[in-house]
Amino acid sequence: MKLRYLVAGLALAGGVSSAAVLLSNAMTKEAVPVALTGIGRWEPDTVAPLPFDDMVDVASIVSRSDEVPALAVPAALNIAPIQIALPALQPSFTTWSREIAAGETLDAVLADAGLSAPDRAEIALALGVEFDLRRLRPGHSLTVVTTADGRPKRVSLDVDDGVQIEAVFGDRVATRVVTPAPDVTTLAGETVIDSSIFAALEDAGIPARFAVDLAQMLGGTVDFRRDLSGGETLKVMWREARVGDAVIGEPDMTFAALDLGDAVFEIVWPEDGSGRAVIYRDGAVMRTFAQPVEGARLSSVYGQRKHPVFGNTRMHTGIDFAAARGTPVKATAPGRISFVGTRGGYGRTVEISHGSDTMTRYAHLSAVPKGLAIGDRVTAGDVIGNVGATGTATGPNLHYEVRVNGRPTDPLSDERLTEALRAKDDDGTALVQLAKARSGFKQRLANAHMTQINGRL
Questions:
Q1: Are 395 and 445 members of one domain?
Q2: How many domains is the chain partitioned into structurally?
């Protein structure tokens, strides 16, 4: 019971306290001013409708559940990505180059380039695949491209006639021969002989080596010591192969005319590749000579000479034509094969019989056509072998002989082969070739004079 009185007393005390707090709060609040009371009752005036004729009732559109306004999707921007090419990182290479000096070996030159012994040996093996390093001589040049660590990347050897032997090193070694494509130009010149053909050609800017060719082609017909007294006119037309300003190989004569006053000798080399030169005297065919190696240089003549191998003076029973190994060798007249094989110092040899008393010999050959046998008939211009250096020879060349009744004779003056060739020739065709050569010479000589005049202006 006492507990019940206690709870009731506490409830009564709490009510009295709450009432006191509320009465206290009400008594402490101040009266609100009249001005503020007016502001609290302010309302905005009615807004006038906007001055548009066609108003859209958005509410009515939204209320239509069956018609949803289509929202236009903005077109996507077509932005092309910008391709920025980053520069490729190239490895650092060093290039070293110089000419071969007299007496130098390839190994010595490579050592001068700073290459190690193993690298030098590898380079020598690579270049040796395509080039006989024993033929290295002054004037050749070597270019070495190395990587940052000093290893060879590319090595090129520039040799004769613009030919380059190139070796490239990497995962594997590749070697190739780079042969330039030359521009062939036909030139013409005219000179007057005062002391010698050699000096006259040299003074006129004509290749002086033609002096030997002319002396041998007209051998037995013109005595160059007795018949040349001075004042004779010499005309020459020739072809040169050039790569840039450099002459590649030996120039080839296509026409020559020697005016001795009482006789005019002319030589025409046809352009059909047969190598058969026709010699004319005063406009008439005198004899024909078929050169066994087209475009080759006459390197040794018939007669007494100092032997290039043994060093003593002995009779040279033929003439030699210097040419690259493998150059085709052609029969100089029609006949039958009388020998195919090896003859001591002659090396690999082919002999052709032209009738009962005349024979031609082709020596130092590197090869003969497969199946070529004794008794086979050949005509002038047929290939019967390839230039080589077999037997006693200092380098690739053809030794060519003409023998009559077993005795050697000068191949450039003997008339027996000429008779064999003339039997197959048409003099009318030869005269047409002469007229064409004369016309070509005049035209090119006039062009040369015009070039000189323009150069002086």
A1: no
A2: 3
